[in-house]
């Protein structure tokens, strides 16, 4: 088996794609069926070039014969397709979502990243990592729960006796990464350009506040239980963008933004959004709305 459509799978997701010469015949064709994906970091120099990093994937090492991974994700130039067949990017895992599985069942992606870098300062690369992984999951029918980090696959804490090849990559939180991949698969617009939504509002702990890491909102504790996943549900990204750059976002602005978001939806979507926002108080809200209408 060869994944000869890897390039097109990523291009379909509107990602920049480069083909490393010979990729279609590289790697063993004796692999599969594909179970999952392993998320890696190259852990090279902070000033490494694409050529040098890809050279490692093509040439391997004494402990890892080439090719090292099917895909390489650059800091700046997007995805590079390295191989279509089986690659040597991890051992048979002893933990994590792909425990008991190895190179014969797992796609490997190596992202250009050094231990001294901060993923929060590389939002574009992180977004591409999420969108590329989502594209692979969709194309090859891989459940998101089988997207595992190398650190989950070969962790130090649960290593078998005598096993020294333990891993700590990637540095970002894998539960959050899987969540973000699922958001893309669901067609939600929760992951947006973080250059657009900066830190646009802060208040006391009982108010709503926003932070910019990957462009998603965070909700302060007192509002969290009431509002739940309102940003993803209402998709009021445009309203948040309009508030960008302001020093303060008050409660009235939040309410106006939510109402504007609801007003642009059909009734089914609006109902689902309200259900997500109010949780177990949805029925109570519906009763009060009905009472208000019938009293007019």
CATH class of the largest domain: Alpha Beta
> What composes the largest sheet?
6 strands, mixed
**Helix proportion:** 25-40%
Principal-axis shape: elongated
Distinct helical segment count = 11
| Tally of distinct domains | 2
Q: Compute the average pLDDT.
A: 81
CATH homologous superfamily placement of the largest domain: Peptidoglycan recognition protein-like
SSE series: HEEHEEEHEHHHHHHHH
Give the neighbour order of strands across the main sheet. 1-4-3-5-2-6
Indicate the topology.
Blueprint: H1 6-12, E1 17-19, E2 36-41, H2 50-59, E3 71-73, E4 79-81, E5 106-111, H3 123-140, E6 147-149, H4 150-153, H5 174-185, H6 221-227, H7 230-234, H8 237-243, H9 251-263, H10 267-278, H11 282-294
Parallel strand pairs: 1-4, 2-5, 2-6, 3-5
Antiparallel strand pairs: 3-4
